[in-house]
Write a structure and sequence with these properties.
It is built from 9 helices and 5 strands, in the order αβααβααβααβαβα. By secondary structure, it is α/β, with parallel strands linked by helices. It folds into 2 domains: 37 residues; 181 residues, Rossmann fold, CATH 3.40.50.1110. Strands 2-1-3-4-5 form a 5-stranded parallel beta sheet, sandwiched between helices. Strand 4, helix 8 and strand 5 form a beta-alpha-beta unit. The longest helix has 29 residues. The radius of gyration is 25 Å and the shape is globular. The relative contact order is 0.14. InterPro entries: Ester_Hydrolysis_Enzymes, SGNH_hydro, SGNH_hydro_sf. GO terms for molecular function: phosphatidylcholine lysophospholipase activity.
């Protein structure tokens, strides 16, 4: 008759317990890895330029920015929170609704319609400040894309309007500031639609190309996905 080792049950029980512990630890690692695999959620709060006015589906600024970031190895989902015709006041009013998307970082790209309507730069500055402060209260990293006024409104208005954005960023050093959303695109006929206001597909790609370093800086500050 084969002899049974009297210590086998205890050794087997110990091995069995360790096996279950290792399996459980592996499951926890897999779950935590799955959580980290969630893309960073980048909200773009803007107007018709963000919403892709006059452009085919899939070539608006948020979509092209997302594609460019992914091409650079960034696992990012860019959420389009653009509303055509929106002003800084409109963006301020709907900010809480936009934040229901639970972003990890935010690009604020408003102000074009304030300038086109000749709104008081002091009101624009107050709206931008309120948006930035609300985002800071949520501990969200922010990129503020500034805007310039149409030149026909005069040099003084243009200076005050640009200062509405530059001043808000200067007093909040945690904000990444990109001085002009349409840098290199505004006024270039080949990069704009016939209205000379909204970028065409080539113009969108140029906006993305120029913004990318600033967006990279923003994403480096984003909290890891939950």
């Amino acid at each position: 008759m084969r002899r049974i080792d009297p210590e086998l049950p205890s050794r087997y029980g110990s091995w069995h317990a360790w096996r279950h512990l290792a399996l459980g630890f592996g499951v926890l690692l897999a779950l935590s890895g799955a959580a980290r695999a969630e893309p960073v959620r980048l909200l773009m709060l803007g107007d018709s330029i963000t919403a892709g006015y006059g452009l085919p589906n899939g070539v608006a600024l948020p979509a092209r920015l997302e594609a460019a970031l992914r091409a650079r190895g960034r696992d990012v989902r860019v959420i389009d929170a653009g509303v055509s015709g929106d002003t800084t006041a409109g963006g301020r009013a709907r900010l809480a609704w936009a934040l229901a998307e639970r972003p990890d970082a935010v690009i604020v790209a408003l102000g074009g319609n304030d300038g086109l309507r000749g709104l008081d730069p002091r009101a624009t500055a107050a709206n931008v400040a309120a948006i930035l402060d609300a985002l800071a209260a949520q501990r969200l990293p922010v990129l503020l894309a500034g805007m310039l006024a149409p030149p026909n409104l005069g040099a003084e208005y243009g200076r005050d309007f640009a200062a509405a954005f530059a001043g808000a960023a200067a007093s909040r050093p945690q904000v990444v500031f990109y001085p002009f959303l349409l840098e290199g695109v505004a006024g270039e006929a080949a990069l704009n639609q016939p209205d000379r206001i909204h970028p065409n597909e080539r113009g969108v790609e140029e906006v993305v190309r120029r913004m990318l370093p600033s967006v990279d800086s923003l994403l480096d500050r984003a909290r890891p996905p939950a």
